[in-house]
Amino acid sequence: GYILTPNVDHVCMFQHSEPLRNAYHKGFLVLADGVPIIWASKLLGKPVRQKISGSDLVYWLAEYAAEKGYSIFFFGAEDGIAQRASEVLSERYPGLRVAGVYSPPMGFYKDPELAEESVRIVRESGADICYVALGAPLQDLWNYENHHETGVPVSIGIGASLDFIAGKVKRAPLWMQKSGLEWTWRTATDPRRLAKRYMQDILQFFPLLAKEFFRSRR
Ligand code: UDP
User: Fold this and answer.
1) Around Cβ 193, how many Cβ atoms within 10 Å?
2) Would you call the peptide bond into 137 cis, given omega within 30 degrees of 0 as the criterion?
3) Is residue 217 predicted with pLDDT exceeding 90?
4) Residues lining ligand 1, judged by CB closer than 6 Å?
């Protein structure tokens, strides 16, 4: 199966996307990627104990895989980035088995031949774990639609994690991650792409939360 790690942006997309909702219903594990999700869960009386973001899990899983002899496939991100990230993790966790690395061209999923080819490459690698770095919702839809065909026991959508590991993008300092401000850091590093995304999220998320809060109290 596959793991999903929702943040506020996913929660907003979830409201309007039936395919994403389907992907969430079929995932075997859903972990809170951001502190605002923890706050929301507490406010709504269903507290989630801990934030476990995809960008942390990629390290922990790699360490675990190196110990147990499981292999990891690195799928997605820009050309060269997934390769670099696999090298960084292999250096950090000696014995880590890299089943393969493949960064499909942007928009590959719209081309049936390329889409098929991508699934075949992952399947033939025989990987035990697949890191899928395509950003949301694409990575989660890709896992939903293809996890049976790839046959990989555990896939996980990891967003920009490979960019962080390879050093292409700098991750927010720990205090920002812990205080729910990671999104402000990301916006500052890539304002043209992310400012609109996060503004829309804020405008959607709080009314949604208020609605759920009053509904749960009723
Ligand atoms: N990406 C990709 N193919 C695509 C779209 C995105 O490989 O068709 C990669 C992109 O290079 C980046 C990653 O997806 O490494 C995550 O993007 P984003 O920053 O949107 O992820 P988030 O962490 O915000 O979900």
Assistant:
1) 10
2) yes
3) no
4) 76-78, 106, 133-136, 138, 159-160, 162-163
